[in-house]
Amino acid sequence: MRIVGKDDPLTVGELSEMAEKMFGGLVKAVVDIKRQIMAVDADLHADQEGELISVGSTQADLWGINLYPDLFATEDFVEFDSVINIRPVMGNRSRHVEDERLRDQIIGIVGGLVVA
């Protein structure tokens, strides 16, 4: 597992290598919207969520996504689908991130953390 920040961005090539090892086409990631970091390269979003919490993140700030390196620089690069996103108390009742502004925020963070 790797925690990615602005000082240590992830390249699309690295992301592609992770995808080949894991799921063939995607890499699971969890984004901390407050700290603007993300965890990548693990089997489960829940493992990434736990790692981020252990280094100071708050669960309410964490959102699970999938990244498709072959679709970098397209609108399909980021997929909002994770069990950790089911949060009825926060108004998110599905695996998808339902709030459009939050999705845009996550896309912006990822855009700063994954480089060509």
Can you tell me about this structure?
By secondary structure, the protein is of the alpha+beta class. It has one domain (2-115). The chain contains 3 helices and 7 strands; from the N terminus they run ββαββαββαβ. A 5-stranded antiparallel beta sheet has the order 1-4-3-5-6, with helices on both faces. Strands 2-7 form a two-stranded parallel sheet. β3 and β4 form a beta hairpin. The chain starts with a strand and ends with a strand. The mean pLDDT is 96.
Mean pLDDT: 96
% residues in beta strands: 15-25%
Order of helices and strands: EEHEEHEEHE
pLDDT < 50 runs, ≥5 residues: none
Outline the secondary-structure elements.
Blueprint: E1 2-4, E2 10-11, H1 12-21, E3 27-32, E4 37-40, H2 45-54, E5 62-67, E6 78-79, H3 100-113, E7 114-115
Parallel strand pairs: 2-7
Antiparallel strand pairs: 1-4, 3-4, 3-5, 5-6
Features:
116 residues; five-stranded antiparallel beta sheet; two-stranded parallel sheet; 3 helices; alpha+beta
Describe the structure concisely:
The chain has 116 residues and is α+β, with helices and mostly antiparallel strands. The protein has helices at 12-21, 45-54, 100-113; strands spanning 2-4, 10-11, 27-32, 37-40, 62-67, 78-79, 114-115. It has one domain (2-115).
